[in-house]
Amino acid sequence: MTLQASPESEAGTVTAPEEQSSAPADGHFAPELPDDAPKAYRVKSRRREAAETILPPVVLGMGVIGFWYYVSFIVIDESRRFLMRPVHDVVDVGFLDSANFSEMFSGLWSSTKVALIGLAIAISIGFFLATMMSQAKIVERAVFPFAVTLQAIPILAIVPLIGFWWGYGQTSRVVVCIIISLFPIIMNTLFGLLSADRAMHDLFTLHHANRVTRLRKLMFPAALPAIFAGLRISAGLSVIGAIVGDFFFGRGEVGIGQLLRRYANNLQGEELLAAVMMSSALGIVVFWTFGWLQNLIIGKWHETVQK
Amino acid sequence: MTTANTNGALSFDGIGMIFPDGTEALRDITLSIDKGEFVTIVGPSGCGKSTLLRIASGLLEPTAGSVEVDRDRLGYVFQDATLLPWRTVRQNVELFAELHGFDSGERRSLSTAAIELVGLTGFENHYPKSLSGGMKMRTSLARTLTLKPPLFLFDEPFGAVDEITREHLNEETQRLFQSEGFAGLFITHSIGEAVFMSTKVYVMSARPGRIVAGFDVPFSYPRQPELRFEPDFALLSGEVSLALRGSHS
């Protein structure tokens, strides 16, 4: 028993009030609403709601692909087409050619491992520092300026230095990931730990809770929403860190960064674009994963978790 | 700061409070609450009523005077329900017992009994975000009841709920006062609430807070909701109101 959307609003055009109020001749029931009724009062079918969620990005995506073809075939001269290969070529060479695809996939897997190791270390350091900072103002004062500095350093500026110190292999890539993803973890965790309100702290004080109990039963759970916000940012950053590190150091296991560089040097346009897409996909998957974890862990109780 | 007098639940002696910024919140408050008494302090907003409770509980040290109270199992119900949002109703109710080191079996039976006392049976596994304001307050009450405190401090706990819910909660609070036998110190700015529940009502003046009047409430317990429509109730409420107005000008 779903309500049919009236055809004129389906098309997304604004119609004159007289037209809208006229009884539908095809026998569909339409609720009688004043012409100026807010949109929220209008009953929507589930199908229509799904369409409204899915259609806009699909339409925009098709527009982008259309523009892509337009650039590939019309804007660029045939001799320079390697700069922007048409979509089907990219799919053919990058994703359907099994040798190419498995090379990229294993590169991507290598970079994923680097990102995850870096993120895990950054989480450990970040949690530890934030917890210490929340326990003693003096630690917060001492660490804060350096945390900000860490954030302010352009990562590209210190990548060569990291190579100097830790070599050009796996270790340096992990270090880049840690540096790039540490700050949001520290700041969000600290902010979260300090977010429990005074009345709740009073409760724990009244019942003689010690520091550890207070941290475990009050401050840490209260910090979870902020921690997850930080993790989602940091997870994305650590993927960037893994790719940037690999791109620059270029030794050891071949990651997606090295592949990007090689494809660019060899003017392999299709592979380059495919590798870029796969890197973005990794970022998206990581972001989703943490969103999913967030829902799983705090979705039951938190007021504003996105579904 | 333990009870010297076995009949007393709480006594303030010459309490004064001047905050570091120079604000004088309380001046020379002397009053005592015996076992079996439910005392309400009414006063305008910002007269230092809550400050007095913070002093009673030990969260705040007064700048003058002394308090005699047993703080071992003090019940303190805040203005907000202050439930931990990541805990279910049952887990919230068990918090104090947890902090006081009861084992899980004891906690379970204490929380079951307390949840039943406030009429929340069936809602044990709900999270605070799905509770109404009144239900949150009941959870907060139940949490405090688990410790069987000999003295309850109420800091305007029903200020944020609607009128009907507030009346229900008043009725239940005076029922619990009877059945559980605690002494109560209740802070509010609602005269009806004060007269309905209490054995004694004190009126506090605007800043600096002083006790300017006291009334004994003669109605017998258990009090029925209809008491609110009795002439005597209206008369006493009127007197309290007059005293409050007098203190305000």
Q: Supply the helix-strand structural class of chain B.
A: alpha/beta
Task: State mean pLDDT of chain B (0 to 100 scale).
Answer: 87
Given the structure, what is the number of helices of chain B? 8
Termini Cα gap of chain A? 26 Å
Helix content range of chain B: 25-40%
Q: How large a portion of the residues of chain A is in β-strands, by DSSP E?
A: under 5%
Oligomerization state: heterodimer
Shape of chain B: globular
Using only C-alpha atoms, the radius of gyration of chain B works out to 18 Å
Q: What string gives the helices and strands of chain A in order?
A: HHHHHHHHHHHH
User: Gyration radius of chain A, to the nearest Å?
Assistant: 26 Å
Beta content of chain B comes to 15-25%
Largest sheet of chain B: 6 strands, mixed
Largest sheet of chain A: none
Query: What's the pLDDT, averaged over the residues of chain A?
Result: 83
Spans of chain B of at least 5 consecutive residues whose pLDDT stays below 50 are 1-5
Q: How does the helix and strand content of chain A classify structurally? A: mainly alpha
Helical proportion of chain A? Answer: over 70%
Overall shape of chain A: it is flat
User: Treating each run of at least 4 consecutive H or I residues as one helix, how many helices of chain A?
Assistant: 12
Order of helices and strands of chain B: EEEHEEHHHHEHEHEEH
What does this structure look like?
The complex is a heterodimer of chains A (307) and B (249). Chain A is built from 12 helices and no strands. The longest helix of chain A is centred in the last third of the chain and has 39 residues. With 307 residues, chain A is mainly alpha-helical. Chain B has 8 helices and 9 strands. In chain B, the strands form 2 sheets. In chain B, strands 5-6-7-3-8-9 form a 6-stranded mixed sheet, with helices on both faces. Helices cover 36% and strands 24% of the residues of chain B. With 249 residues, chain B is an alpha/beta fold. Chains A and B meet through helix 9 and helix 10 of A and helix 3 of B.
